[in-house]
Every structure is written in structure tokens, then in C-alpha cells.
Backbone:
């Protein structure tokens, strides 16, 4: 499990569980994240992502099971774990009255670094996260959401961690800020071999960044693998059919059952999964014709992580998806 300089950068979990009263927030999770990977942890609201991150970063104790981070047991060797990791939690907790430099220096000095060196570290990290141009007198409370996220990331890096935990680092950010964080995550991984454990609500983020992905739903991992492996599980190709109404789509879903056993409907669209899509199209059209259902559009695509997610959790993840709306243009509901 050791890599590069011989340091252990792995994360493992065995039958990890955390209950809150009767709720199994994390319900028997096994994980094996080799050192140097970017690991994407995906799941809908309340799936257990933050709870798992808190256990792995020693903030919460598990109810049962075991986990190790950087080769250290999270319960018995919490101090060692904390030395090895950097953490940016979902709720950014910055003192609003402090400037970025003050916060960074304070954090660096907390790790026992002398003042002069802490000052250098602060400057270096501000460059790293692209905040070096900000007015030095600006207080954290006046930062935008994206700037706060970046500052929080810088704070997680003050002691050169070899493993980094980021809990939804880009949720709510505009596309440019999101792209800046992605670039930074990739660079930390490339340049330092840092293991990065990142939770996200954005499938595109996991698809682009992660070497391996786990999808968690109701406390349990329901799919795991590389993005390519996961997509292959749903099929090699997708035929997407668009209808004039969700009613038509629903009727088509039933009518096509015998010829397309793997299918998912989202509002006015139906997605059918095949090994080879093109050769099935004539039959699909015949069946729809026979049932008197008119088709508005047909496209053949590669499966996306959305398809995987929809299949294993039974729901779409992206916030943009609005199941109830029937008046939005066809094709707008499911991103691909
Ligand atoms: N301290 C707590 N006390 C009681 N219940 C909790 C506590 N923390 C989390 N939960 C519950 O555990 C479940 C998992 O929550 P968690 O925060 O881990 O989900 P999540 O996947 O991070 O969700 P989100 O995407 O919304 O951040 C939820 O049902 C939540 O209400
Ligand atoms: Mg969370």
C-alpha cells in the first residue's frame, strides 16, 4: 500500500457502520482505496456521505466495523490519522472576521510551525488556490462561496497532508469556480501523489476526476468501479426516445418491455440499454407504431454515469432534474 516515498496513503473500511438512534446512516461499508487515487463518493442527499467522511477523519466514532487511513486505525490511532490527513468539510467554518492570511497562519502555527515559516506557507497556499490576488485586508466573511471553498481547501493543506478529504467541495459553485477546484485537485494528485477522497453530487465531477467511484444509497454502497466499468454495467449503448408527454413515455415503456428489457423512464424520455443499439431501432419503431405512440426524437448515445446512478438508486441525482415538470422542453430533464 505504500507508494512514492514509502508513505501509506491508503484508505480502507470494513463493515463500517454508524447508527443515529434507529437510523443506520452508514450501514456496513467496505472500502479499499489504494494510495494515490482520486476516489469519488457519490450519493443523493442523506445517503451517508458526510457521516462516512466524519468517521474516516476521526470526527465521529463508528458504531461498529473498522477503518484505517494512511495505515492507522481511525479509532485507536486517531492522532496519527489526523497528522496524515487534510479535511475540508461540507459546511465551511471560517471565522468571518479574519483575513485569509490570518486564518492560514493561525492554522499553520497550530501545527507547530514557527511564525516566519507559517507566513511563507500562507503565501504559497494562497497562490496554490488562486487567492493571492485578493485584497489582503478582505475578511473571510466577505468572500464569495467559491472563494470560501478555495480558502477552506488551502486550510486543509497547511501541514502537507498525504491524504485529503473533501466533502462536496464544489456544491453550489459556478462552473468556473468548480473547474478551478477540479484543476487544483488534479494537480495535488499528480504532483504529490496525494490520495483524494471526494464526495460529490455532480456526476460529471466524479466522471472527470475520479479513478474509482462508489455510489452510496441509504448507507450502503450500491455500485463501485472505474467510471468506465460502471457505465459498461448498464450496457454499451443507449437509445434515447423522446415523447410528447410523460403519458406517452409511460405507455411506450410498457409496450417496449418485450424488445427492450433494460429501460429507464424520466418524465418524457425513455432510455433503453443495448449491446448494439442501431440494430434494435427498426424493431422499436415498429412496436411504437403498432401501439399508436408517436415519437418526437431518437438518439443513440454512450451510457453516462447518470444512467448508472438512476439504475442503482432509482432516482436521478442532479438538482436540475425535475420529475414533476411536464412543461419543460423534451430532453431537458436528463443530462447526458
Ligand atoms: N448527528 C446526527 N444525528 C442524527 N442523524 C444524523 C446526524 N448526522 C447525520 N444524520 C442522518 O444520517 C443520514 C446521513 O446523513 P449524511 O449527512 O451522512 O448524508 P449525506 O450523504 O452527506 O447528505 P448530503 O448530500 O445532504 O450532504 C441522514 O438521514 C441524516 O439525517
Ligand atoms: Mg453531506
Residues:
Amino acid at each position: 500500500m505504500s507508494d512514492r516515498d514509502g508513505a501509506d496513503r491508503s484508505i480502507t473500511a470494513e463493515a463500517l457502520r454508524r447508527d443515529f438512534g434507529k437510523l443506520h446512516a452508514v450501514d456496513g461499508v467496505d472500502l479499499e482505496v489504494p494510495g494515490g487515487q482520486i476516489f469519488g463518493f457519490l450519493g443523493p442527499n442523506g445517503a451517508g456521505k458526510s457521516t462516512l467522511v466524519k468517521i474516516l477523519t476521526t470526527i465521529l466514532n463508528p458504531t461498529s466495523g473498522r477503518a484505517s487511513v494512511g495505515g492507522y486505525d481511525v479509532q485507536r490511532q486517531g492522532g496519527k490519522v489526523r497528522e496524515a490527513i487534510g479535511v475540508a468539510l461540507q459546511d465551511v467554518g471560517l471565522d468571518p472576521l479574519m483575513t485569509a492570511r490570518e486564518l492560514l497562519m493561525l492554522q499553520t502555527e497550530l501545527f507547530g510551525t514557527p511564525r516566519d515559516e507559517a507566513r511563507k506557507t500562507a503565501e504559497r497556499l494562497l497562490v496554490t488556490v488562486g487567492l493571492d490576488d485578493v485584497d489582503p485586508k478582505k475578511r473571510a466573511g466577505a468572500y464569495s462561496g467559491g472563494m470560501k471553498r478555495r480558502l477552506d481547501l488551502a486550510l486543509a493543506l497547511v501541514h502537507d497532508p498525504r491524504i485529503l478529504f473533501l466533502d462536496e467541495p464544489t456544491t453550489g459553485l459556478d462552473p468556473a469556480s468548480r473547474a478551478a477546484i477540479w484543476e487544483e485537485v488534479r494537480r495535488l494528485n499528480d504532483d504529490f501523489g496525494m490520495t483524494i477522497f471526494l464526495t460529490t453530487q455532480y456526476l460529471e465531477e466524479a466522471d472527470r476526476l475520479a479513478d474509482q467511484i462508489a455510489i452510496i444509497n441509504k448507507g450502503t454502497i450500491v455500485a463501485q468501479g472505474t467510471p468506465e466499468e460502471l457505465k459498461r454495467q448498464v450496457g454499451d449503448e443507449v437509445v434515447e426516445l423522446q415523447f410528447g408527454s410523460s403519458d406517452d413515455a409511460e405507455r411506450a415503456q410498457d409496450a417496449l418491455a418485450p424488445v427492450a428489457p433494460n429501460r429507464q423512464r424520466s418524465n418524457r424520455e425513455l432510455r433503453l440499454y443495448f449491446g448494439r443499439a442501431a440494430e434494435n431501432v427498426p424493431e422499436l419503431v415498429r412496436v411504437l407504431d403498432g401501439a399508436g405512440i408517436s415519437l418526437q426524437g431518437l438518439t443513440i448515445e454512450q451510457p453516462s454515469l447518470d444512467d448508472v446512478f438512476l439504475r442503482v438508486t432509482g432516482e436521478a441525482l442532479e438538482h436540475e432534474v425535475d420529475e414533476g415538470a411536464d412543461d419543460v422542453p423534451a430532453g431537458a430533464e436528463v443530462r447526458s
In short: Residues 49-50, 90, 167 surround magnesium ion (ligand 2) (CB under 6 Å). The two ends are 36 Å apart (CA to CA). Residues 319-336 have pLDDT under 50 and may be disordered.
